[in-house]
Amino acid sequence: MPVDHVILRFVNSFSHSSSVFDTMMVTFAQNQLVKGAVLMLFCWAWFRTGPRQALHRRILLAGLASPFAAFVAGRVLTRVLPYRDRPIFDASLQWQPPHGASGAWAHQWTRDWSSFPSDHAALFGALAMMLFLVSRSAGLLTLLYSLALVDFPRVYLGLHYPSDILGGVIVGFAVAWIATLAPIREAVSAWPLRFLERSPGTFYACLFLALFTLGSIDAVFGLVLLMRAII
User: Fold this and answer.
1) Range of the structural domain that residue 92 is part of
2) Over the stretch 134-179, which tens digit does the pLDDT of each residue have?
3) Tens digits of per-residue pLDDT, 56-84?
4) In a domain, 154, yes or no
5) Which of 146, 160, 210, 213 fits as disulfide partner to 164, beta carbons 3.0 to 4.6 Å?
6) What whole-number distance in Å separates Cα of residue 190 and Cα of residue 204?
């Protein structure tokens, strides 16, 4: 039996053991505030003073695009790799949806989209790597937070296999690492830094919009679905 199935059967054995815990997992998976709260660490890293502040801001600006790039990379991989059904649709698992999740997650898009790799894991993995390059403690905290409150609930609800999460995190790490390499970092951050000097108010308004979009990843999914319907 695949390791993924062994882990999922163990996780699913706790389904309906506690209606409170089941409801928490559904809430964590759906609530945008839970996903966006970790972005406070980006704000902390941006405004942190010190001799390396200029370098750290260049890393953050270059790395800010990496979660979006990781999301796109994940979407590309779901297209080029063999299709993988989600656990909730895998008959061999005999999946028992947690309390409050039986009808909320069986949407058509979950069946149409391959589960590997996890888009959420890729996006937050990139964010964790970007912050790790500025502050190891902030990066590790971001990774642990996202694994516990963003990624695990999606495994618990049967939306992803553990290997989907691992694959997504690796994609996110790789994209963020590439985006923050010195030549790319300097090229990408040059214009935003000049923009900050010329018009700080407009710059911070745009930065807020970018962070808001990152924290509202499900809104990104909605935009992708809309584009697919139009195309």
Assistant:
1) 3-13+51-230
2) 989 999 999 999 999 989 988 888 888 899 999 989 988 998 888 8
3) 999 998 888 888 788 788 778 877 888 88
4) yes
5) 160
6) 16
At which residue do the structure tokens 């809309």 appear?
A: 226
> Hey, is 102 helix, strand or coil?
coil
In a domain, residue 23? The reply is no
Integer Cα distance of 119 and 221 in angstroms: 10
CA distance 61 to 35: 20
Whole-angstrom CA distances from 32 to 5, 59, 122, 143, 188 are 29, 26, 17, 17, 28
DSSP 115: -
Copy the structure tokens of residue 68: 């979006």
DSSP 113-160: S--SS-HHHHHHHHHHHHHHTT-HHHHHHHHHHHIIIIIHHHHHTTS-
Rounded Cα gap, residues 163 and 159, in angstroms: 12
Residue closest to 38 by CA, chosen among 129, 142, 137, 126: 142
Between CA 159 and CA 31 the distance in angstroms is 16
Q: Read off the pTM.
A: 0.82
Find the helix packing angle between 66-80 and 217-230, rounded to 10°. Answer: 50
- The domain that contains 226 carries what CATH number? 1.20.144
Q: Report the helix count and the strand count for the chain, using DSSP H and E.
A: 14, 0
Task: Check: CB of residue 28 under 8 Å from CB of residue 151.
Answer: no
